[in-house]
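Reviewers of the previous submission asked for a worked example of the structure-prediction workflow described in the proposal, so we include one complete record here. The input consisted solely of the amino acid sequence. No template or homolog information was supplied to the procedure at any stage.
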Amino acid sequence: MKDEYPDSKSDLFAGFIERCTNLAGPQGTVAMITMQSWMFLSSYEKLRASLLSKQRITTMLHLGARAFDSIGGEVVSSTAFTLVNVSPEARSTARKRAGAFIRLVDGASEAEKKNALSTALEVRAKEAGFHVASDVDFTAIPGSPIVYWLSEKMRAAFRVGKPLGEIVELLVGLRTGDNGRFIRQWWEVSQDRTMFNCESLQCAETSGRRWFPYNKGGAFRRWYGNHEHVINWEQDGREIEEGLAERYPYMVPQGKTLVRGQGRGRYFSPSVSWSDISSGEAAFRRYPHGFIHDSTGHSGFGDQTTLDQITLLLNSKFVMEVMKVVAPTLHFHVGYVGLVPVAAGVRELPTVTIDMLVATAREDWNATETSWNFVQNPLVPLMLMASGDLD
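From that input alone, the workflow returned the following C-alpha cells.
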C-alpha cells in the first residue's frame, strides 16, 4: 500500500477508491459505498486532494451510521458516491460544476434513511438534506474536507479570516512519562510545599517548593475551572526530565542529558485552554498565571486582551459549527483548533463581557469543596437563615 497507493495508504477501502478511479477510462464513472472517514480525517487529506484535482464528485448519499440493518451499530458510518474522471484540459471548468449531496446521517434505521431520501429528492431543499456544492467549495477549507452542507457565509469565513494559529501561540504541553509518580490531586500534598501563584520558571525554581498547579484539561467547563491537579516540579522539573531521558533516550538532544518538556517556555503563563478529548462540543477556559499545561490540556498564549477576545470567540456558536468541520473526531488537537478562522472584528469584542463570564464561572467553581479557594458552601447561610440562626 505504501509503495503503490501512497495517497490512500491509511486504509484498504481508500486504496480501492484510488484503484477504481485508475481503472476507469477517460471521463469514466466510479460508483462506490465506503466508510465516510475519507471525507474528513487529516490522514486522508492527500487522497481528497487527488480526487478533487483529477475527478469530480457528481452525487453523494451521506448515509452515516445505521444505514444497513444487516450491519447495524454506530461504528460503521458510510457514504455512497459517484466520481467522474476529468481530463486535464477540462479540470478548471469541472471543479466549478456543482454536485448533488443528500445528508441522511440523522436517520436511526435503514427505513428512516430511505424515507428521508425520498423527501430530499422530492423537496430538493437544504432543510430536507439536499445540498449542492462544487470541488472548489471544498478546497476553500483547510484540508479540503467534504463538508458539502456549509453555507456560503461559513466558507467565506475561511477565505477571509486568519487561522487562529497565526494569532495566538498554540502549544501542546508537558508529557511526564509517569503521571502516577509525578501528579497528585492538590489536596493530597502538603500546602507548605505547594505554590499556587507562580509566574515563571525562575520563580518556581527559586521558591524551593515541590508542587505546582497542573492543567490536565478535564471535564466540560467553559470560561473557568478544572483546577484540580498539582505536579512535582521541584528543582525546575529535573526529576521529570531525567525520567523522560531514561525512558525515551532517543529523544535526548545531542550533547544534552535531559529531555525538555513540550511548551516549556510558556509554563506558568496565562492562557486559554481546552481538553484534548470530548464526546461533544469543545469547552474553552481562561487560566490565570501559575499553571503548567499538560499534553491533554492544550493551551494558547498571548497578551491578556487577545486571550480574552479569543476565548469569547472560541466559545461561540460559530466556532462550535467550525469545529465540526476542522475537528470531526473526539479529539480537539492544537492542529485542528489552529485552523479556526478569525476575522479582524475579533479585536472589537468587549473584554468586560468575558470578565463577567469568568467571574461567574469562578464563583461556581469555588463553591465546590474540591476548589483550593473554597470557603463555604453557599447553601449554608440560606439554611441558617431558614432555621432562624442568622439574621
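Residues 12-150 form a domain with the Rossmann fold fold (CATH 3.40.50.150). We consider this example representative of the routine output the project will generate in years two and three.
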